[in-house]
Amino acid sequence: MPLGAPTTRAAAAAPDKSQTAAALAAWHQIDAALRDAPSAERARLYTQAAELAFDPGQKRFLLTHAWVHALSAGDALQVSELELALRALGGL
Fold first, then answer.
1. What is the largest CA-CA distance in the chain?
2. How far apart are CA 37 and CA 43, in angstroms?
3. Is 83:67 a contact under the CB 8 Å cutoff?
4. Looking at the chain, which terminus has fewer C-beta neighbours within 10 angstroms, N or C?
5. 11-42, pLDDT tens digit by residue?
């Protein structure tokens, strides 16, 4: 199963099966792209993956990964944006 892929519980909370199938296909593409990506690209990919998350905890987890990679890449603007999103979800 791809990193951060929807869990059974999260997938069960999905509105319908077609959205779940589309999200799972997107997860697989993101997971494959993460393998050799530099930090800046990983931050973008984790942010993209967070948009597919079905529950707030999963979204917070993925955005935290994006934040760490944005820090590593030295992207101050993305770090600030991610900090705001994480605080809104009860993170940081």
1. 39
2. 9
3. yes
4. N
5. 445 456 667 778 788 878 888 888 888 999 99
